[in-house]
Amino acid sequence: MFTLIIFLFILSLLIVVHEFGHFIMARKMGVRVEKFSLGFGTQLFRKKTKETEYIVSAIPLGGYVKLAGDNLEEYKGHSYEYYAKPPGKRFWIIFFGPLLNYVLGFLCFWIIFFAGYPALTAKVGGLIDGFGAKAAGMQVGDKITAVDGKKVELWEDLQYIIQGKKTASEVKVSVLRDGKELVLSVKLLEKQLDDPLGEKRKVGLLGITPYEEFIVTKHGFGESFTLAMRKTWNLTELTCRAIWRMLMLKLSIREATGPLGIFFITSKVAQQGVIAILNLIGLISLSLAIFNLLPLPALDGGHILLLAIEKIRGKVLSINAERIITQVGFTFIVTLAIIVTYNDVLRFFGDKLFKGFVR
């Protein structure tokens, strides 16, 4: 039950933030918002104000903001309608939804760095045969304090420094052993590894594994902002590369995760505490923002592309063209949802489902 509550909270938060972006910018641009709806199915809450009807339904797997005159069949020419506004103003109404999801992701990471998060120390837990660390005399239990004079405290610091070195180079590693500091010359061994997107790349390795010792790491307010910016940028780059590789058919769509997969991941993350949940929210919110900006029908990026076409043509698309695009968009979303859900079922529950059929 706890996992379900966390799962519903995460989905609801992401949807509300996204739709609030459209809502607040529509109001700012003088467009009347007729409905602000979260979820579908049985209505749990409904309230009508002067201009807007607010609705909360039982199944929070979606949401929408209904703007006055936001399709050509309804548009009557009133100044408060969506299509009465120039393309520039309509762009901001569309763009502000993904933008707020992006900002939410950044804020989650900022809070994590400032509040503190568990991180692996740079203590040696194991040595791999044939690599430079063992040959240089490094031992299990050594605490690495610096590499080529650069201070090291966490395992992620060590990875960042080593991965920035040229492969097959030699580094000076400072270690703390029995209260004494030693400096070891370690030759990095070049090895080809798969990155998170399945791309091959050569890296230099020390040949050690972590000790599984964790400490809570906190940063100052300003430093946390900088670290959150760096993480947001790195994840943005990684997500864009993943999407591009999917479009180029170099990465399977099976790697994408839908609501079912998010629920499964939430069940694992919820056991690790608030910081882990915040990190999950940040990751999903960032990915959702970027995915939504793809120039595909039914996505915000698709609407932005149509605005660009309208700007070039000097007039809006016809009612028939809008109807076709809407149908294509709906078909695309439904098809994508089916594929992603099917992949989630196979990935997380395939062994249990097909266990009885395998001998």
Task: Summarize this structure as a short list of keywords or feature phrases.
elongated; Pdz3 Domain; four-stranded antiparallel beta sheet; alpha+beta; two-stranded antiparallel ribbon; 359 residues; 2 domains; 12 strands
Plain-language structure description:
The chain is α+β, with helices and mostly antiparallel strands and 359 residues long. It has two domains: 219 residues, no CATH class; 100 residues, PDZ domain (Pdz3 Domain). It is 49% helix and 23% strand. The protein has nine helices and twelve strands. The strands form five sheets. The chain has a four-stranded antiparallel sheet with strand order 6-5-7-8. A two-stranded antiparallel sheet has the order 1-2. The longest helix is centred in the C-terminal third of the chain and has 36 residues. It is elongated and about 80 Å long.
At a glance:
The chain is α+β, with helices and mostly antiparallel strands and 359 residues long. The protein contains nine helices and twelve strands. Strand 9 and strand 10 form a beta hairpin.
